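Here is one chain, start to finish.
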Amino acid sequence: MRTPRIAGTAPATLAQGFDAIRAELELPGVFPPDVEDAAERAAAVPVPPGRADRRDLPFITIDPPGSTDLDQALHIAPDGDGWVLSYAIADIGLYAPAGGPVDAEARSRGETIYLPDRRTLLYPAVLTEGAASLLPDVDRPCVLFTIPVGADGEIGEGRVEPALMRSTDKLAYQDVGPRTVPHLRAMGEALAAAGERRGTTRIDLPEATVAPDPAAPSGYRLDVRERLPSEEWNEQVSLAANIVAARKLVAARTGLFRDMGPADPERIAGLRAAAVALGFTVPDEEGPAALAHAHAPSPEAAAELRRGARAAAGAGYAPFDPERPPFHAAVAAAYSHATAPMRRMADRHVLDALVALDAGAPAPVTAWGELAKAMNAADSRAARADAAALDLVEAFLLAPRVGAEFDAVVTGATEDGVRIQLRDPPARAAMGMRPPAAPGTALRVRLTAADLAKRRLTFAPV
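Its structure:
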């Protein structure tokens, strides 16, 4: 599950808890004055000449409603039986020169971190929601991917160049259709089918919202919205660009990659047990493919299983290593993050390298190993923030039900017990148990405590 949003103002208990998470993780606050000043100055500088002019293409952006930090815009043109994808990425590097105060601050932050009540930004908002954002009806600098895609979803070589673009519309996912975004569905489905043939086992996370509910014991409920098909098609576009980026970097024997090895069989067994407990229809397949193709009984169940799957994924950043070719098991290809530079610091450096390589120049000298360490640390901090927020929300929602009994299933072992998955509501917790029961064992458990300060639910076998 993605970090849940809050409908309206967060209850005081949750607001205090989110502040505590920020303090524990030492998340940075406001930007230093010199960084804000440098960002303001950069935002006011005209775009230098010499870029490819692609303002003739009617780009559109597709994002959650209300978004103003727009990293990507797309245009799809038919080409024989396939398509040509033009994919514009915000050129944050133009406004944050390497070695300057804005870039230095971004290196210390690593990525934007989302908690339900507010974000900890990677770059000042004057850039991410202003000068660099691909907002509609204004000229914007970008890094443009031009990628041929076959009717079978196979991705061509593509090129990457600095360009000038103009978005004609800002769409939310629910606005996407054959008239608003021609060819997106057909191309997105073709790309997904090609991914299936490669052996992808990606994990898609639904969106959750904490909403007031007078009938609920806590006065609130967790609404979970399953992803729309348009979100999947749009994500396929980003995946295609990131695969193209990785191919170019591998060919140049340089760069930074998103690395993920094969799934751990024990974790997969635990996730399968959790899926069965939650009422999934799990196909008779081996490994993570069974979970990728499992049918969820509800969005809430899907969110909870995918939360566990994401925690078990084990993806990280790694520099190019000729002795260990880059590979991302879930994507089933070499994969490099390049399409969200305003939210991930590494992406702008990958974009810098791609632009140089496609222009026939050497890639900028970048300490990719140090960058990988910084991004892995930032990724870990973001994951801890995400998990802590979800734990806090679950403890908040279940606190009024201390003493109640629940059906659960064992999904794995801990040092002093087991991990369990509740059937309803779909929540996860650790529980002391000696000897530990095997994964898949059904249990009846009682909630004995809900500690909001520690964000911990305590259960005991009945």
